[in-house]
Amino acid sequence: MLAIPAQELTGELPDPPEFAAQSEPIFVSVGDIQEFKALPEYHEPDWVTSKYVDAGTLPPVAERLPKEPLVYKTANMPDGIGVYGDTMRHVIGGRPEGWNYIGGQAQGWGGIDIGLSECLTRTGPLFMIKAEELEPLPNLAKGWEWSEDGKQLTMHLVEGAKWSDGDAFDTEDVMFYWDDHIMDPNVSPLNGGTPETFGQGTTLEAIDAYTIKWTFQEAFPTQYLYAMAYGTFCPGPSHILKPEHPKYSDNTYEQYKNAFPPEYMNIPVMGAWVPVEYRPDDIIVMRRNPYYWKVDENGNQLPYLNEMHYRLSTWTDRDVQAVAGSGDFSNLEQAESYVEALRRSAEDSAPARLQFGARTIGYALQMNLSGNGWGEPDDRAQSVRDLNRNLDFRKAVSIALDRQRLGESLVRGPFTAIYPGGLYAGTTYYDKASTVYYPFNLEAANGLLDGLGLADTDANGVRNFPDGGADVEITLLANSDYGTDTNLAEGVMAQLEPLGLRVIANFQSGTARDDMAAAGQFDWQVARQGAELVSVVQGTAALAPTGPRIHTFHRANADGELDLLPFEEELVALVNKFVTTSDNAERADIMKQYQRIFTENVYSVGLTQYPGALIINKRFANIPAGSPIMMFNWAEDNIIRERVFVPEDRQGSYELHPETLPGEPGGAGPV
Ligand code: GLA
């Protein structure tokens, strides 16, 4: 058997088809969007004053707001100061596990947790910040200073901000999150915050009720300000959660995680709306948070919208309903729906606007690279892991896939592009010259597997493990909540048949899939990737296994040991270097090296990349131009929902609980 020299497998990467984003952001400075300051007077919906404040069940709005609330500037609001009323009707495909976000429970995605959680900083809206001023927005941390040597960062929390039940938000909440979640290895907060997210050896302490101090090992690691945004530094209500945490109770960690099931109503949040009603497989209803700590320049307490709905349906139905007008919002991200959605939205009578952005949706085939026990593989699975860790094997799989056809099987037209893996074309740090592309070449793929001694010894069409071993059978985990995920997975399975690999579907619904993925119980998975490959600065630590529990497809075994491949060590070193420099030229250079090593080694097998479109009902105002569905975060954060409103003459009567507010935590519902 002749070894095939690596360079012969590489080829010219075709440029993605032209696809112009349909609207461009208006680029501004952070200070143009918001500031923290006291205003001479504050307002709220009339019914809140008359039904609650006048009745003595709620303090006056000025007393409910912080000393200096976050003020959104009018000049940056696309349609200006808004009016109160109406509802945003979301449709989602996920299901809530419960409300303990920091304890690791999912709320069903689709913007639920993004809306409930407020974090120290905020990054969703950064798509509209001038590149040279890019830095996370202050949020629960309203300001910060670096020490002279750059190793300490002092942050000031919004003073007098309150949870939606009126309890004070302060450093107790922040430290409870840090000490008993991030630093407690028994807890895995949703979205995966771990100590390494904030740098090895980093410490955090409370100075007083509204001041915290970070101490880092390096000087000026401004990068961590991104980790303090959604989803890795959004504290939970310590006054509610703490009594259930194992450190302060007899609960097990599992009991703690599950202590706030979806039926638990009125969970205190810092977000603009509070869950007040839950009907399984039907709907979650949220009402305005009377203690929300953000206002407009006229002193109107936000949000403008009184209610939020999350219809518990399917992700495809989210597209269908948004286009039809029975839902209000969708991230059009399942390429199979594009043609129909575009056609309908182009009609004058269309109820919704549809706006495409850049190619920031991407899928990869990820192989489990742990060879030392993560997920407790049996013998078969362990043999697959050994193959996964072999470069020729990964290359063979990669070049046995016809990416052009995979993309076209989702949707025809200029949408999908060949994705060789790593950073997406069209994002800031992408560099084509540093991208190694191994084009479709089934013959060479078969040659590579022959070279590995994987021959079909029993002539059943499936290669066998060496030395009379069993058929090479590989399970492929995918999220059955999304047609795109399973369609791509099926495409992969079919295309690998002529390579002599038997790939078996393991399609699981969202929550089960997430659990299996996080536990390492998979050989391979097809996954839609996160913000780290789009923005690089968001979720940076997850670009490589920089910690034992941080990476998607390579984590430590039960003893906390990682068995990194040599090229992974290089990736880790690059990511760590990226984090500690803020020199833009150096950063760009580091990411070129990252991209080369990633793609050369087929770290993951890129499948397809394509643009997403934001669909939003035309009655909503203050939707920023050029809002991407995914960049630093999802569009549910990017569009700044608390600032969105519906002009009076366009308001619908969708509120299910008009003129009510959230009731007692754990109580029956709205009052
Ligand atoms: C899901 C959806 C995305 C987005 C996120 C928000 O993943 O598929 O479009 O709504 O939830 O968390």
Distinct ligand kinds:
alpha-D-galactopyranose
Number of helical regions: 21
Distance between the termini: 76 Å
Strand content: 15-25%
Going across the biggest sheet, name each strand in turn.
Answer: 17-21-16-20-18-19
Task: Please identify the structural class as seen in this structure.
Answer: alpha+beta
**Estimated helix fraction:** 25-40%
Outline the fold blueprint.
Blueprint: H1 6-9, H2 30-33, E1 34-36, H3 46-53, H4 61-64, E2 70-72, E3 87-92, H5 112-116, E4 121-122, E5 137-138, E6 141-146, E7 152-157, H6 171-182, E8 203-208, E9 211-215, H7 224-227, H8 238-241, H9 253-257, E10 273-279, E11 283-288, E12 294-296, E13 307-312, H10 315-324, E14 329-332, H11 338-345, E15 352-356, E16 361-367, H12 379-388, H13 391-399, H14 403-410, E17 417-418, H15 442-451, E18 473-479, H16 483-495, E19 502-508, H17 510-519, E20 524-528, H18 532-535, H19 566-580, H20 584-600, E21 605-610, E22 613-617, H21 635-638
Parallel strand pairs: 2-12, 3-13, 18-19, 18-20
Antiparallel strand pairs: 1-2, 4-5, 6-7, 7-9, 8-9, 10-11, 11-13, 14-22, 15-22, 16-20, 16-21, 17-21
Helix pairs in contact: 13-15, 14-16, 19-20
This protein binds alpha-D-galactopyranose (GLA).
